[in-house]
Amino acid sequence: MSSNRATHPPDHPATFSCYPAIPPPIRLSLVNTGEHACPYLPGRMSSNRAFWAEQIPPEVYHAFMDAGFRRSGKFVYQPVCRGCRQCISIRVPVKEFRASKSQRRCLRRNDDLRVAIGPPEPDAERFALYQKYVTQWHGKKPADDPEDPYESFCSFLYESPVDTVEYQYRDQGGRLIGVGICDLSPQSLSSVYFYHDPDESHRSLGTFSALREIGDCIDRGIPYYYLGYWVDQCTTMDYKSSYKPHQILHPDGIWRNRGAD
User: Which of 66, 114, 198, 205 is the most buried (most CB within 10 A)?
Assistant: First the structure.
């Protein structure tokens, strides 16, 4: 069983120098957020250790991901919930990845799609697809967002402190049916978010997008594909453990292989 030790930032909210091998040192200030309802487990409360960043060098951000951090817009965070460690960072070592039979069927089912990779650029077409996705797939209502919906969409997905790419998925008629946002570094491709047309659920576009992104890692020579957090007790997170073999980050800071069978 292989393992890799993560490089952890100091466990306190004080200003610190992370990844000191890069001159000059990057100085950030970590803060603990207040408690709020857990987005994954009903009846639970969650809190984060976080910082806001305008720009982060790719290798520095990779070090944070390696230590269990994620980002939402320019907000970089790590769950630090009291009495709970259910949010587990998960990644795929792409050279070892082997698609399952169902995943291979998914690839064949979507071989008619056109995939374009480019810089993330919000527009009316993407926003309409996103609104349809969050409304029909997640049951979110416009009134649930206190901010301007388009401004919230842009800040959530299209403002990034790191190198970010966008995957567009279109059918043969040119209709946009899926968009994936990923962060890119020489060591990793990290899936930030994927939204799609709920009317195309028969395609299993979430699975297809992850497989396509893993394939892109192989083409680029990127060793790891990060899937974010896996929560064992959250059924909507089950799909993340289906990409095998995968590694999870343990509390001791070591990534260990899991799911190789």
Answer: 205
Tell me, yes or no, whether 158 and 46 share the same domain.
no
- What CATH number is given to the structural domain containing 119? 3.40.630.30
CB contact at 8 A, 48 and 33? yes
Sequence-separated contacts (24+) of 131-134 with Cβ below 8 Å: 132/197, 132/198, 133/195, 133/196, 133/197, 133/198, 134/195
Q: Are residues 50 and 70 in the same domain?
A: yes
* Number of domains composing the chain: 2
The phi-psi region of residue 108 (left if phi > 0; otherwise alpha if psi is between -120 and 50; otherwise beta) is alpha
Q: Are residues 8 and 57 in the same domain?
A: yes
The β-bridge partners of 52 are 75
- Whether residues 14 and 117 share a domain: the answer is no
> Before 245, cis peptide (omega within 30)?
yes
Three-state DSSP class for residue 202: helix
- Summarize pLDDT for 129-150 with one digit per residue, the tens: 999 999 997 766 655 666 788 9
45 within 8 A of 34, measured Cβ to Cβ: no
Counting DSSP H helices and E strands in the chain, the numbers are 5, 17
Domain range for 223: 91-258
Instruction: Specify the DSSP class assigned to residue 138.
Output: S
Task: Give 83-94 pLDDT, tens digit per residue.
Answer: 899 999 999 999
75 & 184 share domain: no
| Overall pTM > 0.90 | no
Which helix H or strand E contains 101, and what residues bound it? helix 101-109
Whether residue 232 is found in the same domain as residue 126: yes
